[in-house]
Design goal:
This protein is an alpha/beta fold. It contains 17 helices and 16 strands. The chain folds into 2 domains: 121 residues, Urease, subunit C, domain 1, CATH 2.30.40; 292 residues, TIM Barrel. It holds the Pfam family Amidohydro_1.
């Protein structure tokens, strides 16, 4: 009987238990994203293996597990329990901040003007190449810790500020070490095609990636030294054109990497059409996506990872979230954390998605949980509170979950606990009690 087994954690009597999904859906789109699964006066049990064992009404759970020995019980009366948030797009490994460029942007300089003047990605590449692997790891661990305290329990982490093979491998090794040393979940992405290295043409850089970088990645992956999940390319005018992008992505797919790339950000490139054709798992940005690209992504079940912080900070046109949702695209969200868009907080990302991209709060939460997990190929284990999934949860000190989005910048006072695999990783003792009005 379940009641005689040992279990790791019981969260009991939550005012709201936001399951997000209730029928093992791999993603939510259209009406599914507007009607989230939710229970009131409910409890959840996490087993010793870190997976969810039961979800249901508090009295039923108490009766079923009345004889259980729990390592920890948390009374969630008056509080809400949600899945851990999933950040589907970040660049958290680098050295040398770019606060000086923020002033340039405020004065009117465009992203590409800064890039062509030797700033932007190239500035970060210069500093990242000089940093040691230990220095990169220390910075990464600190940033991941801030993401965790803001509610993210699974984060996509890209390389891409090395550009040459040695520096890219240094970044990927730092990500691999972080995977083993921090509690937050990591999906690792090789993004060697983030910019064209100085002294090379785009064609030369493409050939180098296909002939040198990817074979080495395959070798290290097979030996178990580095685990890479995704391949990324910055498909953009003046960076990697459509044909170069196609070649790199296909070569990455051929060694078993999921395609998850930057597309249609600053110029319409037909990246969405290309991604749908290649069977991409996800495409990010999409501020300049075509109507045909939206339809193609919906048909291909290719997730759109929208980045409202980037559009906000770079003063770009907002992605067409409403049109994508109406056409049946699987819409996910990411922070795009990087030196150019310095935001650790998925609650703030959700708020911006609602205000600037006209998403509903339900749609934003689906995009930051189950759909973001789908974009990383992880929705079978993450993104909702269902039996068998990993026990990654948030407890917020409010009787309505919407406060996590409604209170812009308020997550530091709202998030009471962050739990990974049923273990309390962060407990906020200063958490304020919030009323529901």
């Amino acid at each position: 009987m379940a009641g005689r087994q040992r279990h790791r954690l019981l969260l009991e009597n939550a005012e709201q238990l936001v399951l997000v999904c209730g029928r093992r859906e791999p993603y939510l789109r259209r009406d599914g994203a507007t009607r989230l699964a939710l229970l009131r006066a409910a409890s959840v049990v996490v087993g010793l293996d870190g997976c969810i064992k039961a979800v249901g009404q508090a009295d039923v759970i108490r009766n079923e597990f009345s004889e259980a020995t729990f390592e920890r019980i948390i009374d969630c009366s008056g509080k809400c329990v949600l899945p851990g948030l999933v950040d589907a797009h970040t660049h958290p490994v680098w050295a040398g901040d770019r606060v000086h460029e923020f002033a340039m942007k405020l004065a009117g300089a465009s992203y590409m003007e800064i890039h062509q003047a030797g700033g932007g990605i190239h500035f970060t590449v210069e500093h990242t190449r000089k940093a040691t692997e230990d220095e990169l790891l220390a910075g990464l661990q600190q940033r991941l810790g801030r993401m965790l305290r803001a509610g993210s329990t699974l984060v996509e982490c890209k390389s891409g500020y090395g550009l040459d093979l040695d520096a890219e491998l240094k970044m990927l090794r730092a990500i691999e070490r972080a995977r083993k040393s921090v509690d937050i979940g990591i999906s690792s992405t090789y993004c060697g095609a983030h910019a064209v290295p100085k002294g090379k043409t785009a064609t030369e850089a493409t050939d180098d990636i296909i002939n040198n970088h990817l074979p080495k990645l395959k070798e290290l992956k097979l030996s178990g030294e580095i685990h890479v999940n995704n391949i990324d390319v910055f498909c953009e005018k003046g960076v990697f054109d459509l044909e170069s992008t196609r070649r790199i992505l296909q070569a990455g797919k051929d060694i078993g990497l999921q395609i998850n790339f930057h597309g249609d950000e600053l110029h319409p490139m037909k990246s969405a059409e290309l991604g749908a054709e290649l069977g991409a798992r996800a495409i990010s940005h999409l501020e300049e996506v075509s109507d045909e690209g939206i339809v193609a992504m919906a048909r291909a079940k290719c997730a759109a990872v929208l980045l409202p912080t980037t559009a906000y900070m770079l003063r770009l046109k907002q992605p067409q979230a409403r049109k994508m949702l109406e056409e049946g695209v699987i819409v996910a969200l990411g922070s795009d954390f990087n030196p150019n868009a310095y935001c650790f907080s998925m609650p703030m990302v959700m708020h911006l998605a609602c205000v600037n991209m006209k998403m509903s709060m339900n749609e934003a939460l689906a995009a930051a949980t189950i759909n973001a997990a789908y974009a990383l190929g992880k929705s079978d284990t993450h993104g909702s509170l269902e039996v068998g999934k990993q026990g990654d949860l948030l407890i917020i000190n409010s009787s309505r979950w919407e406060h996590l989005i409604y209170q812009f910048g308020g997550h530091e006072a709202l998030i009471n606990y962050v739990i990974v695999k049923g273990k309390v990783i962060y407990e906020n003792e200063r958490c304020e009690t919030m009323s529901s009005y």
